[in-house]
Each structure stands twice: as C-alpha cells, then as structure tokens.
Amino acid sequence: MYIACFQRDLVTDHSKYIDLQWDILTCGHVVKETGHIDNGCDHGNRVSILEVKSPEDQIVVILLQESYTTFTSSYVTFAPVEACTLDMILNGGSPDHVPILPSGFSILPDGPTRDGGSGSLVTMAFQILDNSSSATYIPPESVATIFKLVTETAECIKAAMFSPSNLGT
C-alpha cells in the first residue's frame, strides 16, 4: 500500500515531480506548469504544458506531459515541443503533422521481497532522434549517450522514491 501511495504522490502532486527534475531536459532549470487539462476523475491526472527555463529566465524547452495514476500503477509521458508548433496547435492548427517523440516512465507495485517488504517495478521508455545512426549501425558515442540518459534518469527516479519527503521523515 505504501508504494501505491508514493506512486500517486510522485505522479499527481505536481509540485513534487516538477521539483524532482528526473529528466535530463529539466536538470538545473526551473520548471513551471503554464496550463493543463484534467484527464480523468483524479485531480492529478492531467495533460500539462511545462515551460523549462534557464536560471536567466530564458525558455529552454516546452514539454507536453501527461501524468496518470490509478490504484495499480502510475505513469508520466512527456515530449519536447517547439514553442511555435505548440502555439500553432493552440490556435486551431492541425496537429496531424507535428513531430512528437514521447518518452516516459511507469511505476508498478511489485510483489513482496524476501525480507517481507515490498517494492516497485519501474519501466522507462525513450524515443530519441539520432541523425548519426542507421538501421544497421549505432555509433559508440550514441550508445554512450543513451546509456548515460537511461542511467541518470533511473538514478533520479530512485532518489525521488527514497527522498525524506516521500518516506515521511
């Protein structure tokens, strides 16, 4: 039950996950939710527009993000979107040809552990555009970048799960 409550807080308490900065696009930047549309009965289930700003208050990237949780699982899906593209869509333009490469993660409760506790299963998915790769070859630099992205994201999610504010201490 604790894991389910944590999942719910991590994904639906937007002040927490905005401050967590679990994604490489947000690290070291200020993230502000500029708008959202509720998606479901829970107040935290929503599609949000997030502005990621530098310390100098310059917009670095805009993220379109969906967060959703139920009593069995939670997920966050996000995609960077260019400001002019988002503006076009919000003003009635067609989203049919908008290039979006969503990424995200889900958290599901896992069964009991050997020591009687419980755990979580975290699944991450990334879609990354890499112009230097082909169908048969991925350069070592690209592999290293992808490895770093996955490793750092997993560490950030793990740190968030075991932070004092989430453990009730």
Description of the structure:
- By secondary structure, the protein is an alpha+beta fold.
- It has a single domain (2-167), classed as Alpha-D-Glucose-1,6-Bisphosphate, Chain A, domain 4 (2-Layer Sandwich).
- The chain has five helices and six strands; from the N terminus they run H-H-E-E-E-E-H-E-E-H-H.
- Strands 1-2-3-4-5-6 form a six-stranded antiparallel sheet.
- A hairpin with a 4-residue loop joins strand 3 and strand 4 (74-81).
- The two termini are 18 Å apart.
- Keywords: DNA-binding, Homeobox.
- It comes from Vitis vinifera.
- Pfam families: PDF2_C (PF25797).
Any guess at the CATH architecture?
A: 2-Layer Sandwich
Structural class determined from secondary elements: alpha+beta
Radius of gyration: 17 Å
What is the makeup of the main sheet? 6 strands, antiparallel
Number of domains: 1
Helix tally? 5
Low-pLDDT windows of residues: 1-8, 15-20
Helices and strands, in N-to-C order?
HHEEEEHEEHH
Number of strands: 6
Percent of residues in helical segments?
Answer: 25-40%
Strand content: 25-35%
Instruction: Estimate the mean pLDDT confidence.
Output: 78
Overall shape: it is globular
Q: What's the arrangement of strands in the largest beta sheet?
A: 1-2-3-4-5-6
Distance from N terminus to C terminus (CA atoms, Å) equals 18 Å
CATH class (first level) name = Alpha Beta
At CATH level 3, the topology is Alpha-D-Glucose-1,6-Bisphosphate, Chain A, domain 4
InterPro entries: HD-Zip_IV, HD-Zip_IV_C
Pfam families: PDF2_C
Domain HD-Zip IV C-terminal: 21-161
GO molecular function, one term: DNA binding
